[in-house]
Amino acid sequence: MSRISLTVNGKARTIDVDPSTPLLYVLRNEFQLNGPKFGCGMSQCGACTILSEGRTVRSCSVSVSSMQNRKVTTLEGLGGSAHPGFLQSAFVKEQAAQCGYCTNGMIMTTQALLDRNANPSEAEIKQALNANLCRCGTHVRIVRAVKRAAQERNQTGRI
Amino acid sequence: MRSTAISRRDFVKNTTGLVIGFSLFGSRLHSAGLGEQSGFNGSPLPTVLDSWLVVGSDGIITVFTSKVDLGTGVLTALSQVMAEELEVSFERIHMITGDTAQTIDQSQTSGSRTLHKAGPQLRQAAAAGRHELLKLASVRLDVPVEKLTVNDGIVSVVDNPSTSISYWKLLGGKRFDVTITATGTAAEMRVAPEITPKDPKDYKIVGTSIPRIDLPAKFTGEFMYSQDVRIPGMLHGRAIRPEHSIARLVSVDEGSIKDIPGIVKVVKEDHFVGIVATTEWSAIRASQALNVVWSEPEAKLPASRDDLYSYLKETKPFKEQSVANRGDFDSALARSSRVFEATYHWPFHMHGMIGPSCAVADVRDGKATVWAGSQGTHRTRKAVADLLRVPENNVRIVYAEGSGCYGRLCADDVAEDAALMSRAVGKPVRVQWMRHEEHAWEPKGTAQLMTVRAGVDQQGNIAAWDFTDRYFPYTAGPGIPLLASTQTGLKPNSPGFPGNGYEYGTTGSGDVYAFENQRINCPVIPWIQNAMSHLRTCNLRAPGAVGRTFASESFIDEVAFHTGVDPVQFRLRSPRNEQRTSEVLLAAAKQAGWVERTSPSPANGNSNKCIGRGVAISDRDGAIVAAVVEVEVEKSTGKVKVTRVTVAHDCGLIANPDGLKNQIEGNVVQGVSRTLFEEVQFDENGVTNKDWNSYQTIRFEDIPEIEIVLIDRPELGFLGAGEASIIPVPSAIANAVFDATGARVRDIPLTSERVLSALQRRESRI
Question: Which of A8, B27, B82, B246 is deepest in the core (most CB within 10 A)?
């Protein structure tokens, strides 16, 4: 067991945990953050994606010890139903999901994209999301939601 | 269980100002609505109106149904049906779904039948409820029912609107205590048929694009999937299974995991082995490290794809299904001017659920509560009860949504795993399968070997049609013990391999056309071994019909080519349901900008990048679809890119146009994926593609433009839309590839290698 400290959604957290534990299980089971999902455990599908210091991280495939003293943002950190983030609102407006299990990865990956490129082209959106899998086939709506989110964010300056 | 309705007008104010309701697990796990009859696991009676709906004093109307939302949004549509019939606003409807303690068994959620079959059942229960509420209001207001009108649950007098009373004043929190008519069971149950429902022409809520009730919470992490259910004291479990088919346990070396912390128990029940640990990571590590020796499997799987199709071709069927034998095929064929024949191969496909199966079970004192994403919780209840050898009434299964499943998956298997392990430790246990387990053990969609023969008369019309589809039966599914049940001693119901009576149907075999002499056979071939294996099979979206339509609609195109007729015009000659099919086909052609000509396209010349268009139609249970596909084929590599898909769709009455479009888009994308990329690979030792790199599904870069034409036919009622529009997609793609290149590919998936090899053969002659 090791003592690991990290900041999750702006809150300092310290836990005693098997240091080899993938970050995903700590977020879900220790902190009850259900946004990130287990999909493959191999960085192949993107359902577990979180942000750390502006970059996407596949939380199923990094150990919690590697996140020592790092900052982590999960889907919950982008907003909740009381105060949804701009991306979450755009996804609602475009009804951009069916089962929604992959959506965490879609939103987190998009957040990172829009933070580095405020006006991505359709090709850039597709490229950014290409390693995120969706089985329900809601890709068309997801691309629309990302475009809408970018546009609305640029108009309103929302973060 | 009552759940919380959360108002989030600010969240969605730019859409509709919708009130969002969703189930919050863990809040009141063992509470129940008035619909519950008694005991741990009540069996609500369909003849009791209170079993269907409860009017709360808070103005919320709770509806109970065994139908569940598998991620398609059907609960939103059902809520619209209930609100419409009850004359209340949509936000007042709250659904309790798939809880065996509280919901009537209206059959599992499958086969595009939720709106089709359960829609009218629920609508009639709602109509009966409104009828009773109006009777109560009539007494209370002392006005005849005919003089009453309802607006959002407020009953008022037609000529005197100030005299009014609400449903919740009339009944809030109390039972109806009314008996209604309900005959038959499950999907065929007829509920209160004597009550006249609203006329669809008066619908105000059904037919509108109300946003999905579940989506906002899914976008914030607040939605409770089965994977997110946590109950106090919960431990984590993982099952360990033999390599490729169920085998006998020889030994377990518990010493092999002695260094892993947090192990609670190595669970051994007959030939089932599982690990329970305090943390999920310990359970995973231990399941990977535990040294287990299994007996050699009694039978090997087919060693290759070729072996598989040879087996399908040469093995005597255990069931012949002659589903059409009209006219005299042999004589008609003998009279024909030209005869054509072709064989098509459809592979095993995965459902490929993004979130591996997960369940939480709490088994104590001979009673079990299990939260699982089962399509049919009543069915899961029986399986778990049989496994634990307790009466069904001691088991309660509560539905918690998993990820989109598109057919029976392992929600039932994992429920059993969790139940066994929970019983073994006397505490709640959560089990989620790992990705490789899901890929390996999920029941697959069957491989199919299809042969079509046709005779064409002097006018170029098909006068004789003979279609044969050889496939395996469901070797997983209703009536067949699940994995853990099998491992703990229950044998497959031999000769249950083959034969639990569930097969891959017959639609898509050319039955969309009414040929004068038509023979359709779907012989069911026994599975190769009498044991659960990686290649067990069950329903996968429009089971069997997608493969058969690939064959029949490719073949129609081949005949159209050889007789020199435009593919749309050729299809217009003999549709069985002439008016609706023609309208759908012409609508798709018009939207796609179809220009009448024969294939292949004359426009591509010698260019490397060839453009083509293809069409196909389907009719499944009355839901009629036409798809027009446009492709680009790179001749040097054989790579196919689907650029645009146009779908015209007639599924009768449309409940929610945007929800329907979402379904159609999903069907199209999944159809493109299965056609271009997907094939279960295997050798005699099991499935070999056990991750997403080796079982490729479509990615954003390959998503086509999708255009949809909806045809609303309120007079037909709901016909079902969950599966219809995937059916014509593969054949339309294959036809477009032919149009682009003149090369016909009769094997799915249309990989670059196959297209290239067809190009090289230039096998355009049948």
Answer: B82
Give residue A96's domain range. 79-156
Percent of chain B with pLDDT over 70: 92
Torsion of CA B21, B25, B27, B28, to 10 degrees: 100
- Substitution target in B69, B219, B673 with the highest count of A β-carbons within 10 Å is B219
Sign, CA torsion B186/B190/B191/B197: positive
Do residue A38 and residue A96 come from a single domain?
A: no
Q: Which of A47, A77, A107 is the last residue of a domain?
A: A77
Q: What is the pTM of this model?
A: 0.94
Q: What is the number of structural domains in chain A?
A: 2
- CATH code for the domain in which residue A72 is found: 3.10.20.30
User: Both A11 and A62 in a single domain?
Assistant: yes
- Residue B201 and residue B249 in one domain: no
Write out chain A residues lying below 8 Å of B432, CB-based: 38
Most B-contacting residue of A88, A136, A156, A158 (CB-CB within 10 A), to test interface: A136
**Quick one: pLDDT at residue B500?**
60
Find the residue in A nearest to B73 (Cα): A98
Kindly indicate the confidence band of residue B409, based on its pLDDT and cuts at 50, 70 and 90. confident
Contact B197, B127 (CB under 8 A): yes
- Which residue in the set A98, A102, A139 is minimally distant from B72, CB to CB? A98
Helix (H, G, I), strand (E, B) or coil at B618: strand
Query: Does A152 lie in the same domain as A83?
Result: yes
Contact B218 A103 (CB under 8 A): yes
Give the residue numbers spanning the domain of B50.
4-223
What is the average pLDDT value for chain B, to the nearest integer? 91
Q: How far apart are CA B240 and CA B261, in angstroms?
A: 18
Q: How many CB pairs under 8 A join A and B?
A: 199
- Within-domain flag for B204: yes
Q: Which residues of A touch B11 (CB under 8 A)?
A: 81, 84, 89, 92
Summarised one tens digit per residue, pLDDT across range B715-739 is: 999 998 999 999 999 999 999 999 9
pLDDT at B499: 54
CA-nearest of A131, A149, A91, A63 to B281 is A63
In degrees and rounded to multiples of 5, residue B489 shows phi and psi of: 115, -20
Residue B216: list chain A partners with CB under 8 A: 81, 84, 88, 92
Considering only CB atoms, B404 lies closest to which of A78, A130, A135, namely A135
pLDDT tens per residue across span B349-407: 999 999 999 999 999 999 999 999 998 999 999 999 999 999 999 999 999 999 998 98
From chain A, pick out residues whose CB is under 8 angstroms from the CB of B15.
92-93
Judging contacts by C-beta atoms under 8 Å, the chain B residues touching residue A138 are: 662, 665-666, 669
Which one has a higher pLDDT value, B503 or B22? B503
With vertex at residue B620, the alpha carbon angle to CA B619 and CA B626, rounded to the nearest 5 degrees, is: 35
**Are B232 and B89 contained in the same domain?**
no
A51, A56, A48: which is closest to A24 by C-alpha? A48
Structure confidence by residue, pLDDT tens digits, B111-137: 778 888 899 999 999 999 999 999 999
Task: Verify that B175 and B274 share a domain, yes or no.
Answer: no
**For B544-563, how does the pLDDT look when each residue is reduced to its tens digit (9 = 90+)?**
999 999 999 999 999 999 99
B329, part of any domain: no
> What is the per-residue pLDDT for B408?
84
**Is the domain of A89 the same as that of A51?**
no
**Do residues B163 and B237 both lie within one domain?**
no
Instruction: Judge contact between B153 and B93, C-beta under 8 A.
Output: no
- pLDDT tens-place string over residues A58-103: 999 999 999 999 999 999 999 999 999 999 999 999 999 999 999 9
* Integer angstrom CA distances of residue A20 from A1, A13, B260: 9, 17, 12
